[in-house]
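Async update (no meeting this week)

Hi team, since we skipped the sync, here's where things stand on the single-chain job. The sequence we agreed to prioritize is pasted below, unchanged from the tracker. I ran it this morning and attached the output directly underneath so nobody has to dig for it. Comments welcome in thread, and please keep replies under the output.
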Amino acid sequence: MRQVAQGRQPWQTLMEGRSWERPGDAVAALAAGKTMLLDMVNLVNGGHLLGLPENAVVELPAQVSGGQVTPLDVPALPDDLLAYVKQVSHVHDLAAGAAATGDVRLIDEAVLADPAIPDKRAGLAAIHELLQVHADVLPQFGVGG
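Output:
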């Protein structure tokens, strides 16, 4: 990860292989008051990742110690990686806004903006089908099943 952050390795290599997230280990360390380093954990940015809003929720390296999770600073990201991270953050904002307001148009915008969804038409069809199938637990969208 440091290699990518320092521009010495392409960011795409981070998408290969097993996830570095270990939520179970983090919860166990918090509960036991143990110390551990986490490669990534979802936290409010708070200025740790330069170029993104302070209130953006981002994946940051962190230390668990004394029942607290403390984010660690990250070196400035290379421009191409920062552009990708900003795009993903925008998708998250759209999705959160859709969930909070029930605005289906925001869901559509999120699908269209998401770089992880290569087939936008299929993505839109899938999300609208899911909204219908799960209308009983997503009443804010007003989509009948």
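Quick observations from my side:
The two ends are 44 Å apart (CA to CA).
Residues 79-101 form the longest helix (23 residues).
Reply here if anything looks off.
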